[in-house]
Amino acid sequence: MGEQTEFEEGMRAPNPGVYVEVGEARSFHTQIQNPQRITLQKGEKFPETSNKDRKWKKEEKARVH
């Protein structure tokens, strides 16, 4: 079983790092303009996203088109 890579509001960060918003269906045509970026420490809660269909993902694992 792999590690979780997408997180929702209220979940706790598994590791320290920079997280960015990603679209739910990470399609080339739904690229997010100016996504939120946050820095969290291990155990801190994820804040609300800009849109209910978005999730948080560690920046180094997020797809960039």
Q: Could you describe the 3D structure shown?
A:
The protein is mainly beta and 65 residues long. The protein contains no helices and four strands. The chain has strands at residues 6-7, 17-23, 37-40, 54-58. The mean pLDDT is 84. This is YjzC family protein. InterPro entries: YjzC. Residues 42-65 have a biased composition (Basic and acidic residues).
Gist of the model:
This protein is an all-beta fold and 65 residues long.
- Helix count equals 0
Order of helices and strands: EEEE
Strand content: 25-35%
Average residue-wise pLDDT: 84
General shape: globular
List the keywords.
globular; 28% strand; 4 strands; 4-stranded antiparallel β-sheet; mainly beta; 65 residues
Strand and helix map with partners:
Blueprint: E1 6-7, E2 17-23, E3 37-40, E4 54-58
Antiparallel strand pairs: 1-4, 2-3, 2-4
